[in-house]
Every structure is written in C-alpha cells, then in structure tokens.
Protein 1
Amino acid sequence: MKRLLMNKFVIGLFCTLFTLPVLAQEDELKDLPGFVDFGDLSATYGEPKITINLGGTMLNFVGMMSSSDSQETSDLISKLKGIRVQIYSMAENSDAAKSQFGKTKSHLKTSGWEPIVQINEDDEQVLVYMKSVNGNMEGMTVMVVDDEEAVFVNVIGQLNPAELAKVMDRFDVDVDLDLE
Amino acid sequence: MNEYDDKWEDRINALMDGELSATDAELLKTQASDDHDLACAIIEAYQLQQAMGAIHVERAPDSLRKRLRAIPRKHRPAPAFSLLQPRWAMALAALPLVVIAVSLMRPDTPSASEIAQARQELAIAFAYLDKAKLITGREIESSVGQTMADAVTDSVNRAIKSQNLNSKEKEA
C-alpha cells in the first residue's frame, strides 16, 4: 500500500515538473498589459470550437521560419508577444456569450483600453478595443458575437490590421470562414 | 515431602496425574498402608491438587494486558518506508538533481511540426481578425457610406502605425 502511494507521489511529481513550464508561459502572458481574460463559456456551450494560445517563444520561431518566405510577415510577427483565440459554436441561445461580451467590455473600459470600433446590431455585436501604454500599442481585443458563434481574439503586442491583408496570402493555409 | 525419600516422588506425581498403571497404583497404596510417611505424602499431594483446582484464574488489569500486547509490536522489524531511513534520505537528497536533469532534458526548441502547427493557428487567428475588420468595414459603410468607412479605417490604421513608429523611435 505504501509502495503504491510512493509510486503515485513520484508520478505526480514528474507530471508537475513537466507541466510547470507550460503554466509559467501562461502566467508570463497574464502579466503583460495587453492580456485580456475572456472567462470561460464552456459550461454553457461546451469546449471551444477553436482555442489558440501562442506565446512569445513560439511566435519567435514562427517568425524566424517565415523570414525566408517574406520579411514583411516576419516583421509583423516579431512585434507580437502573444495571441489568443477562443471560438464557441452556439446552437441556439447566445445570451451567455452576450453576457460575457458585456462583462469583458466593462473590464476593458475600466482597465485603460480604448474602444476603436463598436457595432451593436440585433443579430451581431462587434467590438475592437486597443490598449496602449506610454504611446505604445500593447494589445488589441476583438470580440464578435452573432447568432452562430462567439469569437474572442486577444493580440498581445503590436499589430496593424492594415498589414494583415498583405501577409494573409503568405500563409498557405486553408481557413474556411463564413463571412456572410 | 516431609523429609521422605525422593524416590517416591515420581510415583506419587504419576498417581496424581493418573499416569500410573492400576497395578502400580495398587502397589503404591499397599505400601502406603505400611508406611506412614508415604501415606502422608500421598494425602498432601491430593490436598495440594485439590487446592490448585480451587484457584480461579484472575483476569489481568487492562493496562497490563495492553502492555503485554504491545511487546510483539516493539520487537517487530522496522517498516519498509520511513523518511529517516538512509535510502529514503538519499533519495530525497537526490531529488533536486533529478529536477535539474529533467529541466535540462526538456527541449526548449519546438519541433518543425509544432512550429507548423503554430503557424497554422496564427493564420486562423489572423483570418478571424481579418473577418472582424471586414465586418466592421461593411457595417460602417452601410451606416455612413464608403468614404466615411475608409476615413475611419484609415484613421485607425494611422493611429496604430504612428504608435509603431513611436515605439521604433524609442527603441532606436
């Protein structure tokens, strides 16, 4: 019995050792001024359809990999410290998503974020906020809630949306999005 | 045995225990009828046997019983797991070394497939940002017209670009 407990202890210890770097990276992002906590809607809508958490280290590697293809893309990525995406599919009721949308909006307002674009339609709500510290862009938050899905994007670092279209073609990735 | 010769002692004990054959028992009784000291010894042996039989076995006090029960536990071999045992103490001392070794063994460089996966995730994130940009542009256009939409978009882009320039100047 005691041997079994000891084995469990050793396994638990090693799992903790391997998990610590991942948690440390998440904590590192949380400390950045451009980080936004979107909460968790999985209790209402289940696990997110898409979850993306890219930290500075991984983005550096992606940037280095892209430098041979396009310096423009590499430069754009090099200004990013992290990027996080949560997308939930909503079958019917979007109330929980709209409620979270409102909570996040209130939090952004009180945390020094500036509204760039806000659209409040009956069937669609869009919000783009930007955070700057001492004149430097530290983050951008984009939230889109319509009848089908709730999209939460948090860019930590600097990103000019005008440059996005230029580099999108460089990514040879098939992304199927419904823009209607 | 009232100074009587010890030679009868074994036979009297055997008689008391019922281990003497009927012949020997009869012989002993015959001898006792002629020997007063032997007769007294047999009578005393009977009385002693009856007195012993009359004694009740007293229950020991609980405290004594507990102490008696604890004796086997005290003499049991030491348990296999104890942090004070040398082997476990050595294992604990080696733990920091294991932690350092594991952290050194962990590759800091992601594999090519992990980077490709990250690149794909980044493309998805950019696509959603682009989608939001298109939606906002479309909504502004439908509300205030294309000229104003372009003006708003351009002003936002200029604001962000100027911040980027500001940042570059500070870095320089």
Protein 2
Amino acid sequence: MTDIQVTSPVRDGVGASAPRPDGTLKVTGEFAYASDLWMDGMLHGATLRSPHPRARILSVDLTGALKLPGVEAVLTHEDVPGAKLYGVDHADQPVLAIDQVRYQGEPIAVVAADHPETARRACALIRVVYEVLEPLTDPRRAALDPSYEKVHAGGNVVRHQPIRVGSVFEADVVVTGEYEVGMQDQAFLGPESGLAVPAEDGGVDLYVATQWLHVDQDQIAPCLGLPPEKVRLTLAGVGGAFGAREDLSMQIHACLLALHTGKPVRIVYGREESFFGHVHRHPALMRYEHGATRDGRLVYVKGEIILDGGAYASSTPAVVGNAASLGVGPYSVPNISLDAYGVYTNNPPCGAMRGFGAVQACFGYESQLDRLAEACGLDPVEVRIRNAISEGSRIATGQIVDMPAPLTSMLEQVRDLPLPEGVSTDLRDLPGGVANSTHGEGIVRGVGYGIGIKNICYSEGFDDFSTARVRLEVIGEEAAVLVHTAAAEVGQGLVTLKAQIARTELGVPNVTIAPADTQVGSAGSSSASRQSYVTGGAVKTACEAVRERLLELAAKKLSHDGLALSGGKIVSVSGIVVASVAEVLGDDVIEETREYRHRATAPMDQLTGQGDAHTQFAFCVHRAVVDVDVELGLVKVVELAAVQDVGKILNPIALEGQIHGGTAQGLGLALMEEIQVAGGLIRNPSFTDYLIPTILDMPPMRLEILENPDPHAPYGLRGAGEPPTLSSTPAIVAAVRAATGKSLMRIPVRPEHITGT
Amino acid sequence: MDVQLSVNQDQHPITVDTRETLLDTLREQLDLTGAKKGCDHGQCGACTVLVDGRRVKSCLALTVTMDDREITTVEGLADGDTPHPLQAGFIEHDAFQCGYCTPGQLCSSVGMLAEFAAGWPSVVTPDVSAAPHLDEGEIRERMSGNLCRCGAYVNIVAAIGQAGR
Amino acid sequence: MSKAMSMDFLRPMTWAEALAAKAADPEARPILGGTDVMVELNFDRSRPSALLDLTAIPELAEWELRDGVVRLGAGVPYSRIITELGDLLPGLAIASRTVGSPQIRNRATVGGNLGSASPAGDAHPALLAAGAEVEVESVRGVRIIAVDEFFLGPKRSALQPGELIRAIGIPVTGGPQQFSKIGTRNAMVIAVCSFGIALHPAQRRVGTGIGSAAPTPLRAHAAEEFLGAELDWDGPLDRAVANRFGELVAAAASPIDDVRGTAAYRRHALSVLARRTLTWSWEEYRCV
C-alpha cells in the first residue's frame, strides 16, 4: 500500500480557469463543424423557398429539375412519409409547404444532387405557380383586432398572458412610453448544416449542429414515420447558436433525402439562406405606464407587450411567458396590469434568442425607470435602488425570490466603479473611427444604467431535466473518467465545465468528454442559461453515485471502514491515504447514469399570471459610457461595466467570456442589428447590411462578478449566459439619451433617430 | 483548368473550375476545412488565409489566380507539434467560444503582425514614417475585418497583444 | 459541374495581350483584387463569358509621379496607397483607410472599384475632389476620361467595349484634402454617404466629391462655384460660408431611402461632413 501522504485538490477542477478540451482542435482548424463533414458518395441538398410571404400554391412542376443530370431526388410535402407538421412547442409548421406559404423563405421542395451547384440549379428549374396574397404583417391588429384575417385557422393569438395584481392604478407621478424593438438575428457565424446517413436498419444517422438533440429527434422521427430509436443524432461541431438552433432547419429535409436516395446527404446553408432558415428574436411593440409616488416609489405598472411570432409558433408561447412574468423587471410593484401577446403574422418566424422575451421587456421597463427618475428628479441609480427587489420580495407573478438578490449593492457597485477618461482625441476612439467623420466636433459623452432579471432553466411547469452517464475505469494503469451526456456544446464551454465537475467530484485528473448523441438520455436544451445548472447537476449527481460505488468497492477490497475519497485518493477517517483509485478499481468498471431535475415550477394562472413559474433568477447590471456625435447621430461605446451575481464561479475565464459575449449582443441590438422587414420581405439578408459588432465596436469591459450562492442550485451556481444580454441594451440606449436628450423609443437606435432627420 | 497550388508548403496539382473560389478548393478538394465559410462575400473574415504572407479573404479569391502563390491556412501555422504563439495565446486567453471565426482570426492576426513588423503605419498616424505602436486600439483597428459573434473580442485583443510583444 | 457553366479564364502577361484579349471578347470581365467581381460570382449575379485576370501585368501594380500628377496603376491595392501615397494623395489615402477591412485593402484596387462604378465606392469622392482622370485603353487607342464624366449610372461607367482601365491620373495639389464617410458601425461598413474635398490653392478652387447619395458618385458643382466666389484665401474661414457650402453640397445629392439610411439623413449628414471637412482643410491650409 501507499505511503502516508496528504492529498491535494485536483488540478482544473471546479473554480479553475481550466482550458477547453476542444481548444487545441479549434485553434488548429481540426475541429469538425457540421459544415466540414464529408462522406464518400454523399449528395448535396438544396431547398426551394417561397419568394412570397403569403401565397396559395396552385401547382408545382418538378419536371425540369428531375431531368437535370446529377439530380437524384426532388421531394415535396407529398413525399413526407409521416407527420406533415412539426414544431418545437406545438406542431404547426409544414416540413414542406402544403398548398400555401406563410412567410418568405418557407421551404417548398428539396433536391439532392451530386454537386451543390447542381442542386441549386435544379431548385431554380422547379416551376411553382403562386396566387400571391396580401401578407398579414401588423402584429398589433393580429393581437387585438378579431376582424383581422387569420394566418392560421385557429386564430392569430398564439398566447395571451395577463398579469393582474392589485387594484390601485392612480399615482402622483405617471410616466408613459411606447417602445419598439426591431427583429434581431442570432447571426451565428457557422450557418445551418448537417449530414444525414441512411442506415441498414431503415433508420438514419444525423450529424448536425443543434442545441437539443432529443427535441430534434422527437420532431424528426414522426415526420419520417420512424420510431425515435431509428433516428439517431450525433452533435457535430456547432458554430454558434444563441437560440437559432433550437428549432429545426435542415434536419428533416436531409433525412428525407437520405432515406429516399439511400445515400448520405449533406445540406449546408449559405449566409443569405441562413437568414431565412432559422427563427429570429421577436420584434416587440410595447406600451408602459408607470405610476409612482413623488419620491419615486412605484405604485403601479400598466403594460402591453406585443411580440410578433411571424408565421409559425416556434417557442412563442414560452417567450410570451417570460415577457409577462418578467415584464416589470426586478422591481417591487404592488399593482400590475400587464398583457403580453405572441401572435402569428406573415412576417419571418421568430423564436428563441439569448434573453428570450426578457430582452424586449427589459428595454421597455428600464427606459421607463429612467423616465421616472427624470420625472421625480432622481438619479437613475437611486430610482432603481428605491424599487429593486431583494431576497424575500415577490416578483410580478407573486413568486417569492428565495435566493440572494443583492440588487441595491450591485447598483451601487457599478455606479461607483471608476469612469473612463474624458473624450479622446484619437480618431480611432471617436464615433466613426477612421471613417474620419469627426475630429471632436459634436461629441457629447453620456452615461446610462440598465438592470435585468432573467429566469434560468425552463419554467412554467416544464419537466426540465438532464442526464449524465459517468464511467470510471483504469486505462493504462491510471484512473480515467468518461462523461457522456447529450448536452450541446455550442461554444459556451460546457465540455470544460463537465470535465471540471468530474475532476472535483472524483479527484481524477484524466477526464474525457464523450461526443454528445442520443445514445444517452436527454440533456435538454443549451438555452435558458441552464446547462451549467442542469447538466452540471446531472454530472455531479452521477459522479456522486460513482463515488459511492467506488467507496463500497474500496471497503470490500481493502476491508476498511469509514473510507472517503479525497484528492483522488482513498483515505481513512484520519485522512491517511490508503490506496489510489486505480488500485481499488483494478479491472472493475463503475458506470452510473443519473437524471437531474431542478425543483418543480408551476404554470402561470391564465387570468392573473400568478404562480411560482420559475426556478431561479439571475441578475446583471450594466453601466454604459458612450460618446455620441450628436450632429451625425453616430455612437462610440467607450466602456461597458457590468456587475453580475453568478452564485458560484465554476470557470472564471469562460464566465467572463459569457458576460463579454452577452454584452456584445446587447450592444448590437442597441445600436445596429436589425432584420429590416417590409411587407413581409427581408430587405437585408446579408452581412453587408445586417451589421453585427466588430472588434472596434466592442469596448473594453470592467467586470465585477459576485458569488452569492443560490441554495437550491448545484454548487450554488446561477446561469450566466443571458443576463448580460438583457441589461447592456437599455444601459447603452440610456447613455445615448443622456448625451443627446432624445427620447429614442425604438431599438436599434439609428443615426437618423438621433439627428431627427 | 489545371493549377499548381502550394498550400502549407505542400504542392497540389489540381484541376479546378474557373469559377471556383480558393475557399471552396481548400475545403472541398484539399480537405483543408480549417478556413470557414461564414458569409460568402468578404464580410466576416472566417475564411482568411495568407497568400504570400499577406492576409486575404479566400472566399473572394479565385483559385485559378493562385498558381505560383504560397498559401498558408490555419492548418499550416504550427511548427510541427509546436503551436504558433498566437495559437497558444488564443487558448491561454480563451479568445474564442464556438471557434468558428478562430481560423480566420488566427491567420488574420499572423498577417497583421507581419504587416506591423514590416512597418506598415497606423491608419491614424499623421506621419506615416513614424514607427507604429501596437496598443489595444491599434490591435482593434488592424483586426477589424474579422467578426466574432460570440463576442470574444476582449480576449482576442489580449491574446494578440501578448503574442505581439 | 456541367460545361455550360464554365467560364474562360485568361491571364495575360503583358498589357498588349490584355488589350488583345479584351478586343477578342469584349464581354470578358477584368479582375484585379476580385473583391467586387467575386461577390457577383458567388451570388451568381453575373455570369461573364470569361475572366481576364490582370494581376500578372507588372506595370498595373506600379505608380509614378510625373509633372505633378501621380499615375496610379489600376492594380495598386489600397494598402499600398495608404502606406506609400499618404503624403502625395492625402484625400485618397484617407478614403483608402475606410475601404472594407484590412484583408480587403490588401487586394482591392482603385482600378477595380472604378470598373464596378458603384455609387458607394469609397475612393470615388476623393478622386472627384482631386480632379482625377481615368486612363482607359483598347486596341483602338488610349482615352483620357475626367473622373466626373466616368460614372454614368449605378454600376455603369463610360468604358466602351474593349476598353480596360490602365491607370488613374491624380494631380498632386499640395493643398489639404479630406475625406469623411458615414457608416452605422465603426468598421467594415458600406458608406451611408461620404464626402471628399480637395483645396487647389494654386487655382484658388475647391474640388468636391459625394458618394452613396445619388445614382453615381458626383461633384457638388454649385458648392464648388460658391466657394470659388466666396472664399477669402488669405483670411480665416467664415462660418457662414462653411455652412452655406454644406447646404449646397447636400442640395447636390439626390439620395434615396434604403436599408442603410434615409434620404433626409444622407442630405443632413452630407451638409455636416462638407462643413467639417472644409473647416479641417482650411485649418491645415492656414497653418502651412
């Protein structure tokens, strides 16, 4: 047996800035993204899409396409063997259009050919005769006007969720505002792609970039007319997600073509097609009325939030739930009358994007708080402090916040951070930069604040769980751990965290993360900032089960009671090392699979919105400093400071990256990002005119990260990816308002909104 | 058309369509999938490679024009098993998340540091003969052709700053 | 890929060969850095019968200064204009800094952008302001076209069948020059509108160029004439003159509403850019 020794904690466990296990592959170009997959003899798929947002399909003639040499299949809805409709929440979207189209870009036919160019040309040879109809593009009418024509037979309102609290809707100070949020795109850099391979058992293997393998499987299998076990999914490298891969894109199409031709089929979207190939962030029309005492304490909030879900439901119901339940923000409000609507129109379909309904509302209620501050003659931070919730407060749904919510100190902390130096004279630091539009003329500095509240994990009674399988064995005389989950690594660094958790729980440095696939139970979606919590929790729980069995084995083999695992060694009660893990294991293999569920949530009452709908809340506060060229309406964000409470830091460097990234996407929504839609048509489906922030637009950041543990969560952690996306937008807009004095009711703020021209 | 392509110091005699981009040739014919297609028209930088040491967007370069040029892709940056200092720096500073833009960021930053070493002036230098100084602002300015949607810019600046010293 | 889709690829090694090739196939599309042409090819917006790669012709990548005029080869990339011509052609150099991204600037050329004749080409306002001339050539001979007569419409130029752009002649004025561009982000952006100005002290004249605010890049003639009449070349700049100049520049434009900005904003921004660039130029002129 081993000499007496003291154990030390394992390297790169929980809390360390452990490097990404996929990092080396990603910097050498070897990491296989979905679009990099290749198989001998594979075919290439292409999709014929509707040029019209609303039309009847009178006829589809495939003759020309079928005659083109190299074409192996041309399929329409008639070739869908199973269910014709699918959907992430409820099935309302045709796999391929049936007799009508409801949005520009709706798939009508798919082609497989020996070359991508041939497949595209075949699509162009399909003759579709349309009866073009006037598109229904007014979300307010869709929500409120029963006489408006219907996009779907069941009516245009996908979900209406009221919040009703209290009955006093009078106050000394009343501020109102009508706000608008444009349609933001997730704009992941790696467009939709995947490879479907027909299998000998009549099933199909699909390698795809997605956020949730099992919910894809649940939607694909019925449409193919196959049992789920014959539709096996493996996660391919994901080039960013941000919500846009929560819905299906090419998955069913590629499987249909593969099963039809008996050959592997790859579909890779280009950038333009990607703008039509996934759902976007819901644009929003919002009306708010805030009533308060003269000293700025909220008496009531009235609100109306209309979210344009476009042609199909996607995740609109859940987005509405968030917008409603979080619609007054992290503030104590005794009286609330708020209505959130998600509607069908013939605009592009909208669904999940980072922040998910909470982003839109946050722009509204934070803008209102600034108006209230002005009306009461208060500092914007002070008015927030006077109304902020804290642990024990109730949010709009009546749910008690039973975890730390130190908003007051977070606000004070961000306010008290040092401010950046004054306006620079360096061209590179001025609005417009080297485009040389100012040498300092017209520059006014502004400072603004924003604070957001985001629910973490799935809400409203959803059975939200993850599954982890952990295997411990000796490989090459060393203990080794294999962690297998179906959780999608989309860049957030979940593979790193899973390995860190396994190292900490088992003390074994050598941890391998198995590829994510459907050969293990569902992990749920890589969304709602939930994977550290839920899959992290599942890995932790499975590791604990493995540890228990290891100690049983040790007790049996070593005939020793009271053993424990410490620093990767088996130790006695007095902490003396009695054996290594490898020595105890020998040829034995320990494998345990566990599901992890967060505590149950409840639905919201349909009439009052009351209910304990959420399992966890997370908060981020931003301070934005901007320089605005008030004459030209151009903005340079000088600095963004953020204070975020994450409960427990699992990986400092990866966490900072999440806050940087969420902040950058909020900056984009504030200042430049919008899919411009007119008459149901997208006017800017390219990176020439859909602008996302460049390295010159994203300023340096100052971060303060707090660790007030949530007693209900594994390690006390809180989801971290989304909260910064909420608060950076209103903070930046508030700063621009402070510099310009303009009301700026719409985002993204465009130069002409500032100049008034 | 027949072309002799030199990529990462390997010679590839290949036949390509005259319309084919260098990006497609690298990815589809040479199985060098490091360079990525993000936008297809020079607006994202994910396809950046080095041609004769200068950074170019390979989606806007025709393969048939690349005869007799020396092309370096992300796969060719390391020296055997020793990663390029920028590759090591990107890992150390966690300068990526999804990693899709990373091959382009790396090739672009290698090319940028070479331009810098060759004395290319800062775009804001009034006196173009003055020696440029590679501070954070200058790194941002010179890396502005590579988008990162994950928003890892803060760490990209740090990684390049370290390698550039 | 089927044969019907293929496209001839021609790579002349000399200028004479290039002209002969263009004469033989006037539809052949000349390509230098490829940053405009390749976008069209990738999106299948054009299917030329042949591509005429001009990058192997050494003299196209050279520039020379003779008799106070820089003769800029059509194939000199923007990155070289920035590093080599900042002192001789300051307006063009400032404009070159704003072209696309660093990678684009390593490849894109003034000759190529002129060939595309985009109303948004960043170099065009600087060339208009400087009074540049485009030297075009075919097997029939050489023509010199003043740059303000070169742009005929969106993506349409005065190039005749068989003609190629050989060089751009840009007078070295010795006077201050400026260029400003509006974009809705701080890098890699197509101009919402842009403006170039060049003082020609010897002629007591001011040149102008407007980009992205009309079907073609254009000069603001009335604004130039106004300054020609009103500027006191020996005194400080009168604020009212600068303001009026801005208004006249805005009035010269005929912008539209599009995804990048509104017509009203473009006019407004042009007036601001014109006033500011005139002011900067004047400060520099008075300091010399």
Protein 3
Amino acid sequence: MSVDAADSVLGRLWAPFEAQSGSRRSLLLMSPLILFETLVFVVPFAILVRISVSEQSGSLPYAEGTFTVASYAEVLQSGLLQGIIVYSFRLGIVATVVAVVLATFYAYATWRADGLLKSALLFSVVLPLLTTLVIKTYAWVPLLAPNGTANNLLLAVGLLSAPVQVVPNTLGVVIGQVYIVFPYAMLAIYSVLSTVEWELVEAARDLGAGRLRSFFEVVVPEIMPGITVATIISFAWSVGAYSAPALLGAGSDRPFALEVQEQMLLNFNWPVATALSTIMLVLMFVSIVLIYVVLGRFGGDLSDAA
Amino acid sequence: MSDIELRNVSKSYGDLRAVDGVDLSVRDGELLCLLGPSGCGKSTTMRMISGLETPTSGEVHIGGDDVTDQAAYDRNTSMVFQNWALFPYKTVLENVAFGLKMRGDGADERRREAGEMLERVHMDGYEEHSTTDLSGGQKQRVALARSLAVDPDVLLLDEPLSNLDKRLREEMEIELKDIHEEFDKTFVYVTHNQDEAFTLADRIGIMNDGRLVQVGAPTEVYRNPTNRFVEDFLGDTNFVAGEVTDVGDRHARLSTAFDATIRIPAFEAADPGASFTVSLRPEFMRIRRANGADTPEGTAARADGTGGDTITGTVENSIYRGSSIRYVVAVGGEQLFVEQSVTEQTGIEEGAEVELGWDTHNILVFHPDGSRARAE
C-alpha cells in the first residue's frame, strides 16, 4: 500500500516533466527558468557539496583540491551536532503542528465569517507580513520577558505567583516561529477552503454528521492540498529557523542554522558547516516526501481507507 | 407517522423577512410541492423543515414531535440539494453510504444497503466511480440514493431537477413519482417550475413574498385560486379591469377598456361603480372570424341573449407553439391572448377581424386588493 502510494506520489511529481520532455518548444520556454535555477541553486549547491568533501584546514576555511568524507563522519559521530539536528527537527515538528492546527481553525473561522469580520480576520493575517521579520520577532522579547507585559499582567491579575521564563527559552522560540509561519500556513489553507461549497457541510449534517464529524469527513479531505502546502512551508522554514532561535532562544538549545553560522563565521570550519547543511538538506527532502505521501493518503474517505 | 406541521413560522435575516408567518401541514405520505417565484421563501421554508435553518419564531413539528430546536443531524429528514452537493473526495458508493456510516452501521451492511439503493436508482455498476465524472442526471440519481439510504421520515427536494435539460427532467419527474409511491414517505418538493409541480404534486403550496398564499390539489389551485397572484402565477391569463355599471339578479355588467361590457356573476359587493379585475384564461376563449356586420353594441346585445360574451378585435400576431396556436388580439387598445388547439383549424391570419367568446362561468373575478370575488 505504502509502496503504491510512494510510486503514485513520485509519478505525480514527475508527470509534468514527462509531459514536457517531448516538446522542444516548451523546453525553449522553460530555458530562462532552467538557466536561473542553474545559476542560483545548482551551481552554488555544487560548490557547497564540493567544500563539504574537502579537508579541514588550520589557516584557511577549507583546503582546496583535497578530497575526504571526514567532515561527514565528524557530523554524524558528534553528539553535539546530533543533538542540534534532533533539536532542529523537534522545533520544526512542534512549530508546524501548532501553526497548521491554529491556521486551520483560523481559516475556517474566516471562511464562515462575513462582512467586516471577515475582512478584519484576513487583514490581521496579512498585516504582520508588512513588518520586517527581525522587528516582529524582537517584539516578543518585551512581551514575554520575565519582567515583560505578559508576565506583569498575569502577576497583577494573580494568575501567576512568580514570573515564568519564556524568553529566552525554547517556548519563546516556538511561539516566535509559529508567529512567523502562521500567515503563510493560514493563507495556504484559506485559499483552498474558500473554494469549498458550504452546501457539502450542510449535506453531511443533514445526513447525521455532527459539527466535528462533518468537518473531518467533508472539509478536511477537501482542504488537504492546502494543509499539505501549509505543512511543508511551516516545516521547512521551522527546521531551518534562524531569527526566532537567534533572538528568542537561550543559546544552549541551538538549531542547525545557528550552528552552521558559527562554524562558518567563528570557527572558519567550512567543511563541517557544509557537511551539516548537506545532511540537513537530504533529511529535509526525505521528510517532505514523507509528509506529501502521508497527507496525500487522507484525500479520501478517512476511516474506509484504513 | 411523519406528517409535518409548521405553526406560524417566520424567518428574518436582519430586516429581510424571508418567511412570514407560514402555517402549513403536510400529510403523512403526501408529496407536497412548494411553488413560487425565486425569493419567495420556499427554499427557506424547506430548510427550516430540514433543520439547516432555525425559525426566528414559530414551531416545526414532524410526526407530532416539536423539532424546532433540533439540529439537522438530529432530525430524520433528508435533503436533495439543487446542486446535489455530492462529496467530491468520495466514490459513488461512499457517498450513498455516508448517512449509514454516520448512523454507525458496519462496513458490510453499508456496502450492501448502499449497493441496493444504487440499484434502485439504476446506478449499479458505478459504485467505485468518482462523483465528479458523472453526468447531471447520474449525479441526481446518486444524490437521491444518498438521501433515501438513511430511510428518512421526510424527503426534502430543493429544485432537484432545475439543472437538467427538459427531456431528462421529464424522465426524472416520472421516476420521482414512482419512487414516492414505492417508498411511501412524505416528500416536500420545492420548485419554481409549475409543470414539475403539476406533474408531481398531490398538493401544491403556492408562496409569494414569504407567505403561503394557497394550498390545494393542482386542479384546485389552478381552477379555483384564492387570489389574483395565484391566478397570475399559474399558467397564462388576461387580466381586464373594469367598473360595475348595472347589477342584475344573477349577473352584473362591467364596463372595460374595450368598447364592450363584460358580464360577470353578481356579488353582494357588486354595487354600481365598484372596481373589479376579470381573468380570462387564453384556453377558455373561443376565436372565430367576425361576420363584418357586427358592431360593439350588437355584440353586447347578442351576448345578453346567448349566455356568453363576445367581443371583436384584430389579430396582431399568431404564434405557432406546436400543439397549439396563440393569437395576440388587439381589442380596444388592449391586447388579449387566445389559445387554440391546432386541431381546430380556423385559418385565421394576421390582420383578420375576429370575434372572441367565452362562457361566463369560466371567468374569475378579483377585488382591487387581489382577493377573489366569489359568487354567493
């Protein structure tokens, strides 16, 4: 079953290229894109991979013209770096689940709202996108700090007896990261949800499905493409998160983006930095295919499929 | 028992009163059509029976139980939607089995029952098809099977045939009638198409402007409407306004825009000077070539003697409609429609002087406020 699903997913991914391959005309039309991709992605990535298999050097970022897989071995054997990889993925998974669940409910509420409320809900999602990432992430610091607004408010009301350490902490990183990816997740889901006919929900309810049941039976399969996109965006961004951990994190729990920066700019150890990046890229690719396959299976009748 | 009773039901959306104090009882096992122009509140009325809308005021009873505050998923009613609302991510079989699944039936039972229902609507063989590949008529059948599968007390149909072409619609009308007889359930059918209503309905409820205007058997509402709206909405008719000139024992005379008076049944209210509107159905009028000697006065005089009125006019247009011919006749500055079966070849051409006649008992008389003026 899962093999079939994987086949069909790869088939689906490949189909557009296969359809194009016979036509020289479409190849010509695609040539600017291919050139662009080659220049900004393929070439730099090839250079990155080349550096990752170079020897480390005491005086230079890396030893040119050498070949070794020592840096890969170092990354895979180092407990510290393994911890960093695990931390990155945990952050990615937690932030993605929270963001996608929140975004789904928010999108549903926006879908069902009308008039001024609908505009207000949509506008407040788009509004944060107008501000710089760094500023809106930093804004959490005075809000969540031990002597910040949130703590002071809860202390004053009497809900807390002592301030809670949220920033700098992993909780703060998760909150900041969810805040960053939430608009993209919400818009991805909403764009699909807004094309769903409310009549389908009515039909489900008319046939005896309760509110939750009709949501999971009828709405969720319909918006699965949106949820898949939201999940992939949130996950890819959160695993590679940089600004939220850098500004809101404690420093002890570091995701890989910060580690790569440190290896490159402080330790001048480019082979380890690029090897770590390459390993993360492979892991991310596998994860995203996995997400695609798993979520793609929920496009039909949920419990009949099982 | 699954009779439906609406008691003084109203539904408002802000300032808009979509349904206004509707009292309606639908008998157990009956097929009742709610008929009216778009925006008259017929769909909203039906949605309140299904539970998809909650009345602003009034009560809904099904089978003797007050279900006013019950949600749609707690009511044993089932609705066939205008656009069918089939679940696109489910197969035909999964669609039909959906209600059974919600009810908690096992997978084997669902498969068997849904399969039987598909067979009943002649859609067996399509079980594993996607609903998006089906034609309009096929979707219609699947939607019907899905609603019937849950064995509802009441089946509600919201303009289910309006998206089908004429031939298919007529085919489905007959099939729906068969299904209604076979399943012996209460059906409420909403439509704006009077042919559909006349074909299907045991009784027709005619709605206008949020109100239920009249409920009755098809012949009853067509031949004996309670007000002018019903007479106007069903079929075609000619309305002629006039004032009472003199009142006799059994008949009164109405002076009209034509240069002729019309004889109407005498009413208590028919004092000289009172205004009335008369409805002359095109199919109840006779047409023949005028024998040139007749004057309006002569026509009126002859009408007095024979029991029916005749007036003269000029044929402006004749429209061939397949089974009948419709003449547009100009009479004293007004236009009258006359319908004649094609079998009665009169050979009347455009421009011909004609004589129109009718029997007094075939005309209906309405007060200026639209209510029906009835003979004592």
